[in-house]
Amino acid sequence: MRIRFAGVLAALAFVAACGTDVPAGLADKVESGCPGLLKPEPLAVITKGFVVSEVNSVETNGCQVFVSTGKQVLSLGLVAYASQEESERLTPMLCASGVLDSETKSCEAGQPGDEGLSVHAVAGRWNVRVHVYELSVNDEIKEAVQQIIEDLRSSDKTRNS
Predict the structure, then answer these.
(1) pLDDT band at 27, cuts 50/70/90?
(2) Is the separation of the CB atoms in 92 and 81 below 8 Å?
(3) How far, CA to CA in Å, does 155 sit from each of 17, 61, 116, 123?
């Protein structure tokens, strides 16, 4: 378990150090459509090979991303609990395994079929849900999802409320 976590951290550090090629206009779409919830770098990794056509917040603590084919490829959302302890107690109920990874405080939810990924995680008193739709999921996409979670954990959105 620790080796896998160390590998994820090393990959995240590599992506951060090398930078991610963020297509022109993507940062503006993310900032205007999903302020405080999503950064353009991990989204660029997830949507590599596609043109992002829309990034929007359908609710205060949620965000959706669509590509030019009209398909939704990402959604994320936050659900507030009364405390971090409550979040840590209830979030595992959303996991396929029924438990959070002890290092990342995250887990994969049950996902029918081969395409897509659904991850739940604890970020303070918040449950974070990141869902990738209709994409073949590889390690790079899994690392980008974990980066979204880490970004949310260090954001004002989850730290100050």
Answers:
(1) very high
(2) no
(3) 20, 13, 25, 10
